[in-house]
């Protein structure tokens, strides 16, 4: 069962496109410059959260560098993750997105970085024509913040695995919304929580999602430190939208502290930013 709709994602991607320029201007403030300088000293990108930084460090310890490999992201908009994978590992990027607005955003990102926009596929992951056409086609199949929007999630993971070549790697990451900011979300944003399958946001049930597929497990567990996962709320003109905006700003301070004290390590606990799985399909 899907916990979200195409209309929701069209709306999210439209908001993302609208506020991209504003977010860039906000990062030009002196506070953001201080935080971004701390990020850059650790090798992170401008505006990157510590949770995202820790996750990409994790990938570098488990994935091979192969310019002859192809990688597909499930739910690829706006395309920045694929750009990062190509930069760090050399993979040829592909994306599948069922939101038309998301397709356009990803294609624009591909053009900007010199990739073929035809590699952005407008399709539903559940579409049998798509699954048949690309069965065992990709060396890397990954999704970030995707499988938690389904209940049960094992059926959508099976569709990920169907696209994966023998010897290739499956990478799935989900947010840990049951972390430090869960009380705020439970009190003020239960409708937001209902869009996510929070039952798998613990290590044991998360690991069980992948057990039926016979993958060699490279990593399965918590990644990163504290992170607020209510950022989509910050654009609302409401009391909770204002509160979410304040917490989103406080996240910058938290990230600054984590970049200063953790220095590239990724602590693992129930309060961590996300859970991640990296597994290899047996040849």
- Pairing-aware structural class of the strands and helices? alpha/beta
The level-1 CATH class: Alpha Beta
Quantity of strands, as a count: 7
CATH architectural grouping: 3-Layer(aba) Sandwich
Question: Termini, distance in Å?
Answer: 31 Å
CATH superfamily caption: Vaccinia Virus protein VP39
Task: Order the strands across the largest sheet as they lie in space.
Answer: 3-2-1-4-5-7-6
Helix percentage: 40-55%
Silhouette? globular
Low-pLDDT residue intervals, each spanning 5 or more residues: 21-27
**How many H/I helices?**
11
Whole-angstrom Rg: 18 Å
CATH level 3 topology: Rossmann fold
Question: Please, what is the average pLDDT?
Answer: 88
Strand content: 15-25%
Q: Give the total of domains.
A: 1
- Order of secondary-structure elements: HHHEHEHEHEHEHHHEHE
Describe the structure.
The protein is an alpha/beta fold and 283 residues long. It has one domain: Vaccinia Virus protein VP39 (Rossmann fold), CATH 3.40.50.150. It is 45% helix and 17% strand. The chain has eleven helices and seven strands. It has a seven-stranded mixed beta sheet with strand order 3-2-1-4-5-7-6, with helices on both faces. The longest helix has 23 residues. It starts with 5 loop residues before the first helix and ends with a strand.
């Amino acid at each position: 069962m899907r916990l979200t709709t195409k209309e929701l994602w069209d709306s999210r991607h439209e908001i993302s496109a609208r506020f991209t320029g504003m977010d860039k201007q906000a990062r030009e403030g002196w506070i953001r410059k201080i935080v971004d300088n701390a990020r850059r000293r650790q090798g992170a990108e401008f505006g990157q959260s510590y949770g995202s930084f820790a996750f990409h460090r994790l990938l570098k310890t488990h994935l091979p560098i192969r310019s002859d490999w192809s990688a597909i992201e499930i739910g690829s908009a706006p395309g920045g993750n694929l750009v990062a994978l190509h930069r760090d590992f050399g993979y040829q990027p592909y994306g599948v997105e069922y939101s038309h607005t998301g397709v356009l955003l990803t294609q624009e990102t591909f053009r900007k970085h010199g990739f073929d926009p035809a590699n952005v596929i407008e399709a539903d992951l559940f579409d049998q024509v798509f699954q048949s056409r690309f069965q065992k086609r990709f060396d890397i199949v990954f999704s970030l913040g995707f499988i938690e929007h389904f209940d049960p999630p094992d059926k959508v993971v099976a569709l990920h695995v169907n696209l994966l070549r023998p010897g290739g790697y499956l990478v799935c990451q989900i947010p840990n919304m049951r972390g430090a900011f869960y009380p705020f979300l439970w009190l003020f944003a239960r409708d937001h929580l209902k869009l996510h399958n929070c039952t798998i946001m613990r290590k044991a049930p998360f690991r069980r999602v992948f057990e039926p597929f016979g993958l060699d497990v490279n990593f399965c567990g918590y990644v990163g430190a504290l992170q607020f996962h209510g950022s989509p709320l910050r654009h609302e003109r409401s009391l909770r939208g204002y509160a979410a905006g304040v917490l989103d700003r406080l996240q910058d301070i938290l990230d600054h502290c984590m970049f200063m004290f953790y220095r590239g390590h990724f602590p693992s606990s129930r309060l961590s930013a996300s859970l991640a799985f990296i597994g290899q399909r047996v040849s």
